[in-house]
Amino acid sequence: MTDRSGSFDGVHRRNLARVLSLVHLEGPLSRARLTALTGLNRSTIAALSAELVELGLAEERAPDPTNRVGRPSPVIAPHPGLVAVAVNPEVDAVTVAAVGLGGRIEARERIEVDHLVTPEETARLIADAIARWRTGDLQHGRFAGVGLAVPGLVRASDGLVRFAPHLEWREVPIRAFVEEATGLPTAVGNDASLGAIAEHLFGAGRGVDDLLYLNGGASGIGGGLIVHGRPVGGKSGYAGEFGQNRPGIASVEDRRANGGVLEDEVSRSRLLDAVGLRGADEPTLAAAIRSALDASDGAPIADELARQRRILATALANAVNVLNPSLVILGGFLATLADLDPAALRDAMAAQAMPAAAEDVDVRVAALGEDRLMIGAAEAAFTELLADPLGAAG
């Protein structure tokens, strides 16, 4: 095969990738719209579209109704049968989802656990879920690969989980375990970094080139960065561990963990304790907090929310001073903290940041909700396919 960088073969592969990426990110597009977006001629777009259909990566649909003169253009859409398996192992549950191109959630299971899952057990749970789907709703599906969103330090070069403290995983080759259990190519990344990518491509950060994302989950607080439109992982992929920073706490009365890090103070488990729950998914926790606030004895949860919001605002102000983002996105239980009193959080953050850095910063909650980590993990699984549809599909 000829050199892929500058040869006809290389240009052809890049054009295939460009068309597939467009329908992945933008949704179904007419061939006329693809022609306009790519600058390629109509016959080239027709040939590329036909090839993606032949590869089983896209489907051609009837043209949308139009009042324009002339023959309407067929629509190219991601193939609905193509999915990636997305996984988020946590201390209280392993969530597994089948995600199609474009961020469609086709199936989801939250497998609750009463113990810390081992890497080997996680791989078995994934394989079991795939087996159930293959004999059920996704029996005609095509599985492109597996993506894992892990709450810990993940080495970018090989997906080795160096340390996931809350899961008690150290130096774990989880990619190899999952590939052996499922027979599918597997990608591994930090959960918050993948959440940042998902929100940037499909959610609250769509179209925003400089953003900070903080994710609050059962295992603590992680972060992800998008700078100049590109994810920033650092030298080895460990960037964004905001939860391990030492928080600035103005009042000693606000401190709960002597010498603790941010995720010890701004904590999902403390919110669960405040509403009397041992465990819950994100919507259940948010609903329980709102119910507790509405009750006659809601002062304790209100006080805890305000305490955590004060500390979070300081952490965000520090991040704004260092990174100068145009947008801060909060996901997980941090979204609940923000959503209950967005003005208070925004004002407290701005009061502690440099005025020039804070004046153009917007704060939003994650638009993808509990789908964000699933969509981010799927994006990791789809990476090779989107970069080279011909090679990956072959």
UniProtKB/TrEMBL annotation:
InterPro entries: ATPase_NBD (IPR043129), ROK (IPR000600), WH-like_DNA-bd_sf (IPR036388), WH_DNA-bd_sf (IPR036390). Keywords: Kinase, Transferase. It holds the Pfam family ROK. GO terms for molecular function: kinase activity. Belongs to the ROK (NagC/XylR) family. This is NBD/HSP70 family sugar kinase. It comes from Agromyces flavus.
